[in-house]
Specification:
The complex is a heterodimer of chains A (about 190) and B (about 150). Helices cover about 65% and strands about 10% of the residues of chain A. Chain A has helices at about 5-20, 25-30, 75-170, and strands spanning about 35-45, 50-60. Chain B has helices spanning about 15-25, 45-55, 60-65, 95-100, 105-110, 130-145, and strands at about 5-10, 35-40, 90-95, 115-120. The longest helix of chain B is centred in the C-terminal third of the chain and has 15 residues, at about 130-145. The chains are: A mainly alpha (about 190), B alpha/beta (about 150). Chain A: It is a peripheral membrane protein.
């Protein structure tokens, strides 16, 4: 049911009633005291967003029951019904509107978060990751290089000591120590 | 969770207000202040804006923070009449031609409650291009079309 149609219907009935009952506007406006139709705001949860929903309810009696008793009572009754229907429809429309506004805000906030994460947080983490990997690679290379250098140095040292030993053997200063395993004749054995 | 009962406020011409009052939404609060405003030919824009803007804020503190720096007269506003100020008002119905007059106040109202609904009047049929809310909706939808 379209809002425009309901409002038009209500406005027509108002014109009709005015025609029959005369001008009751001032009376109506002066006789306001308590509202018969009020709304409650309920919370509805949709996809993690709490949306306010309006629910209308009636309370108390019709304060305009006696209006129109003089003339145009039926038109006035029809008018009241039409406007009551319009109010119900408008309450529903208002609920949809607030849902829309709330969701709009939620979407904007979520978009901002997505953008922040995509353009700030993720690149930062990726850069940290790249740095860590580069650092580890470099350390490995350093370690490798160090090991190689040590091996070379050891080799050089070994060659150097061997050469010295040879030189001293040739010079006769050093004899090789006895080799227990190679000896064939043991002097200490008396009986062989 | 259901909150306590909230009222429906009306800002409109005499016929609109009469009709809705007959629908049963009119109330005077304990200070004898009504939840409706009848806008006539001689009602000033400031008065409408004043009543509306006060209708839309939740508390007195927020009404002061609202963007009213462009209107020095608002400093004299009486908080009790203001609709936005009162937290017992859930929906504000306003005729569209009146909404046009206070369009900047309407656009400044970002909160979801009270909901501001633009309704047509007898002389001015409803024009969706002028509705604040639908303009926001159109903005949202064009962005989605691009995606």
């Amino acid at each position: 049911m379209l809002m425009g149609e309901v409002m038009r219907e209500a406005a027509f009935s108002l014109a009709e009633a005015k025609f029959t009952a005369g001008d009751f506007s001032t009376t109506v406006i002066q006789n306001v005291n308590k509202a018969q139709v009020k709304i409650r705001a309920k919370k509805d949860n949709v996809a993690g967003v709490t949306l306010p929903i309006f629910e209308h309810y009636h309370e108390g009696t019709d304060s305009y029951e006696l209006t129109g008793l003089a003339r145009g009572g039926e038109q006035l009754a029809k008018l009241k019904r039409n406007y009551a229907k319009a109010v119900e429809l408008l309450v529903e429309l208002a609920s949809l509107q607030t849902s829309f506004v709330t969701l709009d805000e939620a979407i904007k906030i979520t978009n901002r978060r997505v953008n922040a994460i995509e353009h700030v947080i993720i690149p930062r983490i990726e850069r940290t990751l790249a740095y860590i990997i580069a650092e580890l690679d470099e350390r490995e290379r350093e370690e490798f290089y160090r090991l190689k250098k040590i091996q070379e140095k050891k080799k050089i040292l070994k060659e150097k000591t061997e050469r010295e030993l040879e030189k001293r053997k040739v010079a006769g200063e050093v004899t090789e120590p006895a080799n227990l395993l190679a000896e064939e004749k043991d002097e200490d054995l008396l009986f062989e | 969770m259901a909150g306590r009962g909230k009222l429906i406020a009306v800002i409109g011409d005499e016929d609109t207000v009469t009709g809705f009052l007959l629908g049963g939404i009119g109330e005077l609060n304990k200070n004898r202040h009504p939840n409706f405003l009848v806008v006539e030919k001689d009602t000033t824009v400031n008065e409408i804006e004043d009543t509306f803007r006060a209708l839309g804020a939740f508390s007195a503190g927020e009404a002061e923070a609202s963007p009213d720096h462009h209107d020095p007269q608002l400093l004299n506003e009486t908080p009790n009449r203001q609709f936005l100020n009162r937290d017992d008002i859930g929906i504000i119905l306003i005729n569209q031609y009146i909404a046009e007059m206070v369009r900047h106040a309407l656009d400044a109202h970002q909160r979801s409650i009270p909901a501001v609904l633009e309704i047509p009047s007898k002389e001015h049929p409803y024009d969706a291009a002028k509705d604040s809310i639908l303009r926001r909706a159109r903005g949202m939808f064009t962005a989605e079309d691009l995606r």
